[in-house]
Amino acid sequence: MTKSFLLAGVGGQGTILTSKILTEGLTQLGFDIKMSEIHGMAQRGGTVTTHIKFGEKVYSPIITSGEADVLLAFEKLEAARHLSYLKPGGTLIVNDYEIYPMSVLTGQVEYPENILDILKSTVPNTVVVNAYDIAKDAGSVRAQNIVLLGAAVKILGITDLDWEQIIKSYLPEKFHEMNIKAFNTGMREA
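The line above is the sequence of Indolepyruvate ferredoxin oxidoreductase beta subunit; the predicted structure tokens follow.
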């Protein structure tokens, strides 16, 4: 049986790095995996998504509407934007964090109020993670992606790997301790 995992964030949040680490772990677990990255206007604060499918045999990484088992949103508005990809009964993991898009910054529209309440009422299986505060406590707010990775690993039930070693293989040594702390706290908070 194939599982679908969609990651959605804003350029600069570490969505692609998180996808690569997750994919490495799934590979070590023996799954066939396909991954596809969509960058959009990532360097200008635009949406970045990664489609990951894994299972015994996977033919395409592309996730269509209503197909994702898990949606990992690095930002609240990105969760709302990509909610249509989540299948009924799927799980939404959302970072309690806001990055205002250009339309909000220029005053064209307002950032939606009570967006977490709307998401939770729409998706019963919603896990809200305050990755910003956790990452800050770990040493840098830039580790939010690794906090969310920890939450995803816990929720997917794939904790029986040496995730710390996998994370270390993707990051410079000077960031190991901080990111391992962020990952472990993310797992606990899930």
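Note on the example: DSSP finds eight helices and six strands in the chain. The longest helix spans residues 15-28.
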